[in-house]
Design brief:
Blueprint lengths: L1 H16 L1 H30 L10 E8 L5 E2 L1 E2 H11 L2 E14 L10 E8 L3 H5 L5 E2 L14 E4 L1 H8 L9 E4 L2 E8 L17 E4 L4 H5 L4 E9 L5 H18 L1 H4 L2 E7 H5 L1 H35 L1 H9 L4 H37 L14 H27 L16 H36 L10 E7 L8 H16 L4 E7 L9 E7 L12 E9 L1 H5 L3 E4 L13 E5 H7 L9 E4 L4 E8 L14 E5 L5 H7 L3 E8 L8 H11 L6 E5 H8 L1 H35 L1 H9 L4 H30 L15 H26 L4 H6 L2
Length: about 800
């Protein structure tokens, strides 16, 4: 221990005497370690850290699966009850479904009405999770019954933000969706269920009270199920039991359960699935950056070890053992790694803040991305490994010092094994940087192509907002229709509004509804096997407001009312699919076993879910003509209001639009106010975010590789000063020296490019599903990136080469 302490003190003194070298080495390592720590912190929060529930390893998600297609879906309550009763595999089973809630402003308090995401949950949810409320209580079993469900549990964040942390809130009533509900509990800070959600964070939980039909209809798959395994029951045992139950149900209820089973998935695996692939790819990218940083520092330490050859030789001549010299060199690199790791941790938390602020497409439990033992252990392990990797070659070089090296002249750069290590490190840096640059180049190419896709509408000058009418307050069709009529009439009259309409599912708005239908003249299919199309309900002047072109026939107009013949519009994809050789105008379709609708027009194809998805057949129906089963199945209370404005800044009419809604209903929130250009941008936000991080890491890798090339060539020039002086004394011209140095550097670069191209051909295939219109082996991208890297490397080699041409032959010969 005493000798180790001596090594540390000696290494610290040496680093203090070379502040320039120390700063460069520490900053290089800090970049690599900090990037890895930042990404691992998010990986830890999303994929590794146990959820704050009791014994979370026993919590599982249950979903229905269609064995033929492998498609999974939500579950029906009737099937869930049989799974639970007949399998005897679970202690608790709970259900949930998301819902937007409208919170009215409280009398005597400031604040506008607000809409936010909540969940309807069975009262068994909180016992199944093993959690209690921080204030008050969770739900009683009896509160899952009709008439007793007007209670609510709210999140700690909502309690602080909206109610000012009022300790007396428990037991008070708030108005939700037009009804008075009693706040019975406030959850602890950090509690969230579901644990990972897309975009929105749940802020309250209310009892789920199914209707009689929902409780017994096995085709009504509308809830998400979570269960706690019994002690001693493994995941495999539970799956085997459920398979047996599902097989019996398929025989007993063939109309709804034939060919269907149940899939059981650990809660941790299910919750982080949508973010897993992207995070793993980012972790791999920062791993490349760290390897390049290690190679850079290793080259710096090799150069430093070469300069200290006389010192090591003298110490060996005085009796120092080789392993002792190697340990001294390794201690120095480990000390650098520790310093870099400490600085990297600080940089990591700054980087995590940027990621949390930018990752709008996925909620990464931002409040829980914080240092914990796993993150600190990861950083310590990475720092230690970095120190070993960066210091191994210099340590071996120190151990290989010879006593005769204490004197004499060196007129050539180190050759053989020693020089080969340095050259190999440069080649490796170039290869790793090239892989990252090609991956970023492919992503940039794919994103550019995606942004050129025609969405099927004109997003400029369009403002959108969401209005969700609460069922408890708007129970009748007459009230709903009256609200929409008044809203559109008043909105249309606002200054600067050219057209206004409503739609049930906004294009690129992350929502797609489907409806079953039957074509006139076709045989009636068996129940459950009807074809389905994408479906949207529209009102007002929606198509003109969105700029969706009319291809054939007409738009909806004043001839189409509540008591007239039901009509529909279809898109071009539907016309091509179902009437490839006929004119669809005038044809009739039976929608959802409701009424026959006559097709009066064909409109252009619109990208409904994503820009990179093929357009599916789509139907448009009128709000005012929704009736019967259609109304019961889909409702008409959820609308997106669409305004086309004369202003280049559509947001300028947002305040007037909100006031118009409140003039009709003062407690009705207006949410998700965005321009359509923002909607289009948000549709590619996930790709753009991933690309941004990948590009940052690629540029960082390029800079480190260029610095490595520069450092190696500068060191080579300094070591060959006498040789260059002799060459120039014998008649070599500056151009000859310039070509000599650049040629040596570019040989290493080209070798790295060749290896990197082969590696990239294998690695970039994992990006195939994230690329649009670009092959993962796109020759143009590979060539362009290779040329870019070669040019940067050429510049990095040119600077020391240029300096070599200015060597004074006489001064070089006198230098030693």
């Amino acid at each position: 221990m005493g000798t180790l302490w001596q090594d540390l003190r000696y290494s610290a003194r040496l680093l203090a005497k070379s502040p320039g070298f120390t700063v460069v080495a520490v900053m290089t390592l800090a970049l690599g370690i900090g990037a890895n720590t930042a990404i691992f912190s998010i990986v830890n929060a999303v994929l590794l850290r146990p959820f704050p529930y009791k014994d979370p390893s026993r919590l599982v998600m249950l979903s229905e699966v269609e064995w033929k297609s492998g498609h999974t879906s939500s579950v029906s309550l009737a099937n869930l009850a049989d799974w639970n009763n007949q399998s005897a595999a679970f202690e608790d089973v709970a259900t949930s479904r998301f819902q937007f809630f409208n919170l009215a402003s409280r009398p005597g308090r400031s604040g506008e009405p607000e809409e936010f995401l909540g969940y309807r949950v069975s009262p068994s949810l909180f016992p199944a999770l093993g959690v209690e409320a921080a204030l008050g209580r969770t739900f009683l079993g009896s509160e899952g019954q009709p008439g007793r469900d007007h209670v609510v549990v709210i999140s700690h964040g909502l309690w602080r933000r909206r109610f000012g942390g009022d300790a007396n809130l428990v037991g008070q009533t708030i108005e939700l969706n037009g009804e008075n509900c009693t706040v019975v509990g406030v959850m602890a800070p950090g509690f969230q269920y579901p644990p990972l959600t897309m975009v929105y964070t749940p802020e309250l939980w209310a009892p789920l009270v199914p209707t009689e039909q929902q409780a017994h209809d096995r085709a009504a798959r509308f809830v998400t199920a979570v269960a706690r395994l019994k002690a001693g029951v493994t995941l495999e045992q539970a799956q085997a039991r459920l398979d047996g139950v599902a097989k019996r149900l398929g025989q007993q209820y063939p109309d709804t359960n034939k060919g269907r089973g149940v899939r059981i998935t650990p809660l941790r695996e299910s919750a982080g699935q949508s973010a897993r692939r992207g995070l793993v790819l980012l972790l791999g990218a920062v791993g490349f950056v760290l390897l390049i940083a290690c190679a850079n520092v290793a080259n710096l330490l090799l150069a430093r070890a070469s300069a200290r050859e006389k010192e090591f030789a003298i110490r060996q001549a005085l009796g120092a053992e080789r392993w002792r010299l190697a340990r001294q060199s390794l201690t120095e690199s480990l000390l650098l790694a520790v310093l870099g790791g400490g600085l990297g941790v600080l940089a990591a938390w700054w980087g995590v803040g940027l990621v949390k602020a930018s990752w709008i497409w996925f909620n990464v439990r931002g409040a829980q991305i914080a240092p914990d033992p796993r993150v600190l252990a990861f950083t310590a392990a990475v720092s230690l490994l970095t120190g070993l990797l960066a210091g191994l070659a210099p340590a071996l070089r120190a151990a290989g010092a010879r006593a005769w090296a204490a004197g004499g002249l060196r007129i050539a750069a180190p050759r053989g094994r020693r020089g080969a290590v340095s050259r190999l490190l440069v080649v490796s840096e170039v290869a790793l940087a090239l892989v990252l640059l090609i991956a970023a180049g492919l992503m940039i190419n794919g994103l550019w192509r995606l942004r050129q896709v025609n969405p099927g509408f004109r997003p400029e000058h369009v403002l959108t907002m969401r209005v969700l009418l609460p069922e408890e307050k708007y129970r009748t069709a007459a009230r709903i229709t009256l609200f929409y009529q008044q809203l559109l009439e008043r909105i249309q009259s606002l200054p600067g509004v050219q057209a206004a309409g409503t739609v049930s599912s906004l294009p690129l708005g992350r929502l797609e509804e489907t409806v079953t239908f039957r074509l006139e003249g076709w045989p009636e299919p068996p129940r459950g096997e009807e074809p389905a199309v994408t479906f949207s309900r529209v009102g007002g002047d929606y198509f003109r407001a969105m700029g969706i072109p009319l291809v054939k026939g007409r738009y909806f107009d004043e001839r189409d009312g509540e008591n007239t013949t039901p009509v529909t519009l279809i898109n071009q994809a539907a016309a091509r699919r179902y009437w490839p050789d006929a004119d669809p105008i005038g044809k009739r379709v039976l929608v959802a076993r409701g009424a026959w609708n006559q097709i009066v027009g064909v409109v252009g194809d619109v990208k409904q879910l994503d820009l990179d998805r093929e357009v599916r057949p789509q139907m448009y129906l009128l709000y005012s003509q929704a009736s019967g089963r259609m109304r019961a199945d889909y409702g008409t209370r959820f609308i997106m209001l669409v305004l086309r404005t004369a202003s280049e800044n559509p947001s300028s009419v947002a305040a007037a639009a909100r006031s118009t809604v409140w003039s009709i209903d003062k407690d009705q929130p207006v949410a998700d106010v965005r321009t359509m250009e923002q909607v289009v941008a948000d549709a590619v936000a996930g790709r753009r975010f991933f690309l941004t991080l990948l590009s940052i890491f690629a540029v960082l890798a390029l800079a480190l590789a260029a610095a490595g090339i520069y450092g190696v060539m500068s060191y080579a020039v300094s070591r060959r000063t006498q040789e260059i002086g002799i060459r120039m004394a014998l008649g070599a011209q500056p151009g000859d020296v310039l070509r000599l140095v650049i040629r040596q550097g570019m040989v290493l670069v080209l070798a790295g490019v060749a290896i990197g191209l082969v590696a990239a051909l294998a690695v970039t295939r994992v990006l195939a599903s994230s690329l649009y219109g670009v092959s993962p082996t796109d020759p143009a991208t590979f060539a362009a990136v290779s040329v870019l890297l070669a040019l940067v490397a050429l510049a990095a080699s040119y600077i020391p080469a240029r300096r070599a041409t200015k060597v004074d032959p006489m001064a070089a010969l006198r230098s030693e």
